[in-house]
Amino acid sequence: METLLEPLSYAFFQKGLLVASLSGAILGLIGVYIVLRGMSYIGHGLAHSIFGGFAAMQLFAAKFYAIGAGLWGIASALAITTVTKRSRVGADAAIGVITIASFALGVALFAKFGTSGPSFENALFGSILGITTGQIVGLIAVAILTTGFVILRYRALLFSTFDPDVAAVSGVNVGRIEAALMVVLSLAILATLTVIGVTLVAAMLVIPAVIARMLTDSFGRMLAYSTLIGTLCGFIGMYTSYYADVPSGTMIVLVGAALFIVVLATTGGSGLSRSAGLDKHPEELVSK
Amino acid sequence: MHEDQFTGIVGPSGAGKTTLLRLLLQTLNPVAGTVWRAPDLRVGYVPQLESVSWNFPITVFECVLMSRKSSRIRPWSSASEKASVSAVLDRLGISDLGERHIRELSGGQQQRMFLARALLRQPQVLLLDEPTSGVDISTRHDILHLLADLHEDGMAIVLTTHDLNGIAAHLPHLVCVNNRIVGEGTPNEVMTPEVLERTFGARMDVLEHLGVRLVVDEGPTPYTPGTRT
Asked: What are phi and psi of A114, to 5 degrees?
């Protein structure tokens, strides 16, 4: 018991627990929409894109580089939806092209003109201990924004995710809802990037949602389960990272992966058949 | 279209039936010509079952309710919303399936669920894309009767179909399309060998049984073993 309570006596660890749990919750919640839209890889892409934005913005807007990086990410996300809508390019291909190009541009700008910045390793794998009060406030603000968005636009979000064509006919402004989702997603990734890391944030966007999908057939319950699972992964991951002495982001993702295996083993075929085809766009799914 | 319209759009695959519906729905913009629609017209739409993502985690109740615009801040449904969903499910005979996942329904029940979703908005016009593909004969009858009842209640209905005998022959008004309109009128007027050949590009015979026109596909010459050259 004493060993369990030991880390709690450190202020940095308490802060870390809060931040990790909150990050897990945000990504778990918004991840449901991303996974169900067949855009699982957008998390991976946007995290890289925002990382590129970080690098580039350090040159231009020293103090406000986080805001600049956020705008960089939002621009990439909106570019993906625009390209997907207006051309024959699928969402997966658009994500691959746009986000990695924006990542490359940021890194190229930084390599050419940059001199100093946060250590690359911290940004890649997450550094929960170096988190500032400003970042915590940002994370809480994003958590409120994400929750508010999901609650206030619940039906419109659900309708446009399930059946965008009929939603548009039924008075939902699908274009606006999708753009708003991309903005919220970019901000969620921006806020959690420093906690979980560029390379790992995508996993936390997908794992809780997929586990939740294996557990339920109801949309409302999937949202609740996914948020809860994300929170749990953040909390347990942070805790175990203290003992394992590895970066918190890696442990958070590993806890999620372990939970995924446990749920897969217990739900078996029914869980698999529920989560089958989640990586496909609705239009590609023909019949039952 | 007028208020008491009940029209079937008939044509082969690729003739532009769904495109025409989407033009009416204004989810597609015409390359030439214009679609004029009354600004506050309430339209209900029932999509083709093939276009639905059946693995989406959603119950019948959730699916039907999503078409109701929420005026409240809370995402969960109010008592009056629950009552109106129950009423429409009841009317369509699927009131006991509300908590089921959408994939667990039969083809006919799925069709009714999407009809329920469209009806919840109390539409003035109902558009249906192939409402009887993949359902059995008795379900097809039920759906046809249901649509006839809705039409009696004053709803304008347009549906697409390639089922000439099961659906088209029983509708009051048909439009035959094959990239353009090739015929329009009552079944007796358009279900003729000439119009059908222009629509489907194949010879068809038309018989009459109990006052209803029936189309017989001449088809290719039957295969007889040993005759291949």
From this structure: -80, 155
pTM: 0.84
Q: Where are the domains of chain A?
A: 2-279
| Token digits of residue A120 | 């690359």
CATH number of B13-166: 3.40.50.300
Which residues does B contribute to its contact with A (CB < 8 Å)?
A: 22, 25-27, 43, 45, 47, 49-59, 62-63, 65-70, 73-76, 101, 103, 117, 121
Do residue A277 and residue B55 have CB atoms under 8 angstroms apart? yes
pLDDT tens track, chain A, 288 positions: 777 778 888 888 888 899 999 999 999 999 999 999 888 888 888 888 888 887 777 666 555 667 777 888 888 888 888 888 777 777 778 888 888 888 888 778 777 776 555 555 666 666 777 778 888 898 999 999 999 999 999 989 999 999 888 888 888 899 899 999 999 999 998 888 877 887 788 889 999 999 999 999 999 999 999 999 999 999 999 999 888 888 888 899 999 999 999 999 998 767 677 777 665 544 444 333
Joined together, the tokens standing for residue A38 give 């067949």
CA dist B14 and B18 (Å) reads 9
In b/e form, how buried is each residue of A16-43, taking b as 16+ CB within 10 angstroms? bbbbbbbbbbbbbbbbbbbbbbbbbbbb
CB pairs under 8 A between A and B: 91
CATH class for the region spanning A2-279: mainly alpha
Question: Which of B27, B57, B103 lies at the smallest CB-CB distance from A165?
Answer: B27
| Structural domain boundaries in chain B | 13-166
Burial of residue B227, with CB atoms counted within 10 A of its CB: 0-12 exposed, 13-18 middle, 19 or more buried: exposed
Cβ neighbors of B178 (< 8 A, separation 6 or more) are B11, B12, B15, B16, B198, B199, B200, B201
